[in-house]
Amino acid sequence: MKLKILVTAGDGVGPEVTNEAVAVLKEVASAGGHTFEFDAKRIGGVAIVQDGTPLPAETVAAALSSDAVLLGAVGGNEFNSMPADKRPEAGLLGIRSALGGFANLRPAFAFKELAINSPLRPEIVEGADILFVRELLGGLYFGKPREWNKEKKEAWNTMRYTREEVARVARIAFQLAQKRKKKLTSVDKANVLEVSQLWRATVNEVAAEFPDVTVEHQYVDAMSMHLMNRPRDFDVVLTENLFGDILTDESSVITGSMGMLPSATLGGKVNLYEPVHGSAPDIAGKGLANPVGAIMSAALLLRHSAGLEKEAVSIETAVRKVLEQGFRTTDLVRGKAQGLTVLSTTEMGAKVREAVKLLLA
Ligand code: NAD
Predict the structure, then answer these.
(1) Over the stretch 267-296, which tens digit does the pLDDT of each residue have?
(2) CA 167, CA 206: separation in Å to the nearest integer?
């Protein structure tokens, strides 16, 4: 397998965690005789400083000619006073829209060893394993008209979807459900919103193409409660942009630390993989960042851009094994560190690599 991967490490802890993800990918390549070629380009604050723009044209061109993009994080306190379209985050939005992915995958899972880190009771979160599929390019965040009319002291946004926009993301969610527990929960607000009624009707139409997947519909308000009361009952959760934004952040409490969570954005010209967390300026450069979110994003890259399922699973299993052995980065230690070994970013990366090597041997 030959794969061209563009790495845009970005700012803060971005380079620290992506270095570890790349090292794990190199381990997988050498174990399986694969050729992974890595190119690196700037994005975010580092690009503002060196190129005068958060998203240089060269980065976009390299992204579009790669097989997959692995992104770290962008942002830094020194850029906070800049206008929104000049800030590092504009680079992130820019690359997402240049690549055109419309299906944002965000797993929310609970490792047994980390159940104690969740504010939810261990018996509620243990074994939870949800894959959110959030529509990323439509709905309230992009719908027009949108305006804050200051004279009239009035503002409005538009939640809008076409049938095709719903159908294409629903198909991805159903295909993913087929490879998991064959259960899909679609979340809407069809008791109030016409756009949700279209959403529900379209999901039901697409469901006919996937008779092996069981579908249920939930209203978003009820779902926000079910996720905290009984997260283990859900497998693939499909929802629109705004609801997905809120529910995925809510569900990150199941895992217990932002540093653990990966994401993938599929469906566009090139898929994009990135940890969920930001640039964490408070801990950047101190070796304190948890690289697991970035490493698990590399696993998603192997699964969705290379079809290397066994290798993806080996990374996920390696992370579990390392946690079982009591290794933790600082963010994963709550209260007593008794019986645990606290590791730096690079030490954690090395432990995961070692475990991957053993699993693929
Ligand atoms: P953040 O995710 O960077 O940090 C939130 C908290 O989580 C901090 O206490 C941080 O130390 C901790 N944390 C984050 N990642 C961690 C990791 N890998 N290991 C251990 N602890 C970790 O969010 P924030 O503080 O709101 O934002 C900081 C900057 O990042 C801002 O400039 C923001 O705009 C940007 N941001 C970027 C992205 C992205 O690039 N995808 C996402 C969110 C925020």
Answers:
(1) 999 999 999 999 999 999 999 999 999 999
(2) 6
| Catalytic residue chosen out of the listed positions 129, 141, 181, 357 | 141
- Tokens coding 110: 């609970």
Nearest CA owner, ligand 1 atom 33: 75
pLDDT score of 336 more than 80: no
In this predicted model, what pLDDT tens digit does every residue of 3-15 receive, in sequence order?
A: 999 999 999 999 9
Is any atom of ligand 1 closer than 6 Å to the C-beta of 279? yes
pTM assigned to the model: 0.94
SS3 218: strand
Nearest to 110 by CA among 234, 287, 295, 18: 234
Instruction: List CB contacts of 273: < 8 A, sequence separation 6 or more.
Output: 68, 69, 70, 71, 262, 263, 264, 265, 297, 298, 300, 301, 305
Q: Is 333 in the pocket of ligand 1 (CB under 6 A)?
A: no
Listed in order, strand segments (DSSP E) in 46-171 are 68-73, 103-109, 129-135, 147-149, 154-156
Q: Where are the alpha helices (DSSP H) in 36-128?
A: 45-51, 57-64, 88-99, 122-125
**245 is annotated as an active-site residue:** yes
The 3-state DSSP class for residue 229 equals helix
The residue length of the chain stands at 361
Spatial separation of the C-alpha atoms in residues 170 and 297, rounded to whole Å: 22
Residue 150 has pLDDT above 80, yes or no: yes
